[in-house]
Amino acid sequence: MPAVKFIVAHDTGNPESTAQNNVSYYERTNNEAYASAHIFIDDKEIIECIPALTATPEKAWHVRYDRPEDNQLFGVEANDAAIGVEYCYGANINANEAYKRYVWVLAYICHKFQLNPALTICGHFLLDPGRKTDPVSGLRASNRTYEKLLLDVVSEYNSCLNNNEQINMRLIKNNSSNKIYAIGADNKKHWIFNAETFTTGNAMGLWGSWDSITVQNDDSFAEGHMILFVK
Ligand SMILES: [Zn+2]
After folding, report:
1. I need a surface site. Which of 68, 134, 170, 172 has the fewest CB within 10 A?
2. Which residue has the higher pLDDT, 31 or 63?
3. What are the chain's domains?
4. Is-above-0.85 flag for pTM?
């Protein structure tokens, strides 16, 4: 994909299907189906199905080419210039946790590709009206609105930007708890969930290698935002 110009906010339209359910489906059908999105998010996982954040973004087919709305709004076809992010919802998915991760990822994509979060996030329903209602319907199913989503992403983005905490994080290993955190410029800690998250953050330049971990006793860091790419 040449350049990321905007983000399409989707929901799966399939209540109770998890991020892994969706990604497994696309993996099974990738020889026969074109439809896909880059990232799927539920209450436990943020899964990159098609490269978007961890490598040069590849193309995903998540908006119909025969609709003119993407060209009218952004001057380009969504599939050629937008990252598609899918929100999972349903009775088995904790909406607070899934929504929080959805907001983090949308804000993080804006940060990574230098997009204005107030102007470059677009619901699928605006690009294919009459046929699509996402993510309004999925958000409504978890008692949230599309308008609130946009506001929440902007405030998440702004608070991270103000703290400039996405780059040059230090790695700290706490002596007593044996946990490893990344500490941002604002002296807040960010959880590193597992070895895969660690490797991904390292590849993204967020922090150094295992060798760079400082061991210390101090565990007084405040909790920061969790815009980490959690896999
Ligand atoms: Zn959609």
Report:
1. 68
2. 63
3. 6-162 (3.40.80.10), 170-223 (no CATH)
4. no
* Maximum Cα–Cα distance across the chain: 59
Q: How far is the CA of 61 from the centre of ligand 1 (A)?
A: 10
Q: How confident is the model at residue 194 (pLDDT cuts 50, 70, 90)?
A: low
- For ligand 1, the distance from its centroid to the CA atom of residue 164, given in whole angstroms, is 32
Average pLDDT of the residues of the chain? 85
- The two structure tokens encoding residue 117: 């979060």
- Rg, C-alpha atoms of the chain: 18
Q: Report the pLDDT value the prediction gives residue 210, as an integer from 0 to 100.
A: 86
**How far does residue 39's CA lie from ligand 1's centre (Å)?**
12
Ligand 1 center from residue 10 Cα (angstroms): 4
Q: What is the DSSP letter of 210?
A: G
Q: What are the structure tokens assigned to 54, written together?
A: 């961890």
Element (H, E) at 99: helix 95-112
Distance 86 CA to ligand 1 centre (A): 7
Scan for tokens 């044996």, then name that residue: 178
